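Vacuolar protein sorting-associated protein 16 homolog
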Amino acid sequence: MAFVTANWNPLGEAFYRKIELYEMGWNLKDGLRECLVAAAPYGGPIALLKEPQRRSPSVRPQLEIYSSSGVAMASFPWKSGVVKQLGWTVCDDLLCIQEDGTVLIYDLFGNFKRHFSMGNEVGQSQVVEAKVFHSPYGTGVAIVTGASRFTLATNIDDLKLRRLPEVPGLQGAPTCWAVLTQDRQSKVLVATGADLFILDYTACTAVSPPGLSPQATSIVHMCVSFSYKYLALFTDSGHLWMGTANLKQLNVCVTFFFASDRHFIPSYHFSWCRRPKSQQPSVVIMWDGHILVAGECKNTISYHLEGVSILVPELDGVRIINGTHHELLQEVPASCEEIFKIASMAPGALLLEAHKEYEKESQKADEYLREIKEQNLLGEAVKQCVEAAGHELEAETQKTLLRAASFGKCFLSNFPPEPFVSMCRDLRVLNAVRDYTVGIPLTHTQFKQMTVQVLIDRLVYRKLYPLAIEICRYLKTPEYQGVSRVLKHWACCKVQQKEEADEVIARAISLKLGEAAGISYSEIATKAYECGRTELAIKLLEFEPRSGEQVPLLLKMKRSQLALSKAIESGDTDLVYTVVTYLKNEMNRGDFFMTLRNQPVALSLYRQFCKHQEQDTLKDLFNQDDDHQELGNFYVKASYKEKAQIGHLQSAVDEYNKAKNEFAAKATEEEMRLLRFQKKLEEEKGESLVGFSLHDTIRTLLAVGLHKHAEQLYKDFRVPDKRYWWLKLTALAEKEDWEEIEKFAKSKKSPIGYLPFVEICVKHHNKYEAKKYVSRVTPEQKVKAHLAVGDLEGAADAAIERRNDGEISTVLSRCSPSTDRALVERLNRAKATAAKK
């Protein structure tokens, strides 16, 4: 703690510090000399291509991938073309851009993933220089060819190549150039001598930075800030221009004495060093074994470098990597400056001193606390200590600051605990991933920008599954976003281990995943199938509880029989239909039908489908199964839809006979007889009867007066007497042919009695005709008949004669006490007499 400010250097109103992150674990004899190097941001991995220009087939360049601490992750000889640039995507995939315009993509462990080309014309003119950049759309690649043409790909995952307009007067490679991201569009800023041009998709526009020294004859270097908001230009006259990336606002323009020595200029490396919300712009210039930090003021900060180094821009500083060390150069955060600055009287500084005195059991602790409380700044002091702890990389310094914050909280009654608790959790996670064996040197600012989910993804991508799971559990991340997601990635990696048997891997995955929420075994099985391990994929699918996830993959693996069984077990008819449709398209007709015969449920569902969609297929199914009963039914249904009715019905009779269904065969034959009769009558009389039922045919014939033909049907088809009398009575009454009804009633004794005659006449509002049949009604129905025609006297006489209490009561209910008084008295007397007996 006594030496916290030992590595601080002032620049204007701010301080800068250079912190050692790691002593590199790699063993590079010549350091980074003759190496093409690319380091991913946010403490990402480092790629080295040793001697990239070597073209001898016997001795090839070596591509190596390390963690930020120098721990080897991958190494393999480079067997492809000459590499012009290395870079990393936002997902930590390595991009290798070759001079022929081909971009090869490798994962973190050197496994080839895919490649793409930056255009056919690039192969002829060759790539002179390339840059990898990050835009709101993802990772992009920009190149300039020997023909002085720029090509841009804003997102390599959705490749759309843009060939930018020509730069006026440009011959060969430009002096320097950079990619800008403005208004969600990527542009290229090009310097040719002292002239600047902005290239977008449609035009080349000349621009002039405000305040740039007129002494400059050439802009030799430029760099864009990590956020793409700011731009720095360096000229051959030694002038440094810093401003906004849109070139509309100047922040500062300063001159450096060493720049006049022109032979240093080509070896410059340039990077912004600006933390978020900082009011002071600053850049880092590296040349000839030195680093210079320049800002608004005339002064600079100089550091000596050991060996060849590279600068890696970060959100809140610059990482410096050389053959032996990995360091972070950044502006000292405001909270750290206020607490640790010499003679600081900030609340956080006083609280830290108070805690130190408290640990010494000194009364000065109370004096410091009183001073803070008198200014009502104790809450601010705690906040400063918590925030400063997040910006410190040494665990002991973090603990000291957090203890001071905890000490201050004891004297506050309403200070929210969340910031303190959250910082403790964040620091524990950050200290874990900063460990040498992990090698992700994130600052707290970077961690908050990155988010926990992305950090977990990066750990998973590096196969650090135990650490990822512990962090998820410690931060209490929802299981489906945390532990389950990590376990799924672990399982997908596990299935790629070809040295282990399928049974062993399947058992291990099942035991590890158990009942973890949100894990789809089908996704793991898909990965196994993609790796050529079909049997393992099938074993893994046995653990998948959702049939809807099992079936599509089984079909993809050509395991259609198993897919059909799983679909049937699920009880999901839509899923069964999906499999059946797939089988129909993939198999020949005979094999398809035989497959369905072994699965009755699938066969039944397919028949239902065919009934509505494919009638001919349904017929083939019945033929395949020799199902004569269903074939007969099929022909009967077909007879209603097609003109060849007799032919279909005859086929149905034949099938019913084969099925030994005598009733169905006889009923169908009678239907054929009826059809022939209807067609003959239609031809002779012009009455449209084809398709009518026997009942409707007789009724229609009676209605149109064809009584003889109706009689013939009645006899030929042995229609029951009662049904025929009812049909004829109803048909004649609808025609109001009362004379014919009377003849019909006298023709012979009615099998339905004569009450229907009374009721039909009353129904058609003819009581006069109805009364003719009342006398012929049986005694049991006479009361009802008299009441139907409105004859109360007759009904009373019939009821009294039969001495039926129920009938007497029925007649009484229809009488009116005022108009039928005598009749009511008579009925009451009869009712009383009947009751006595």
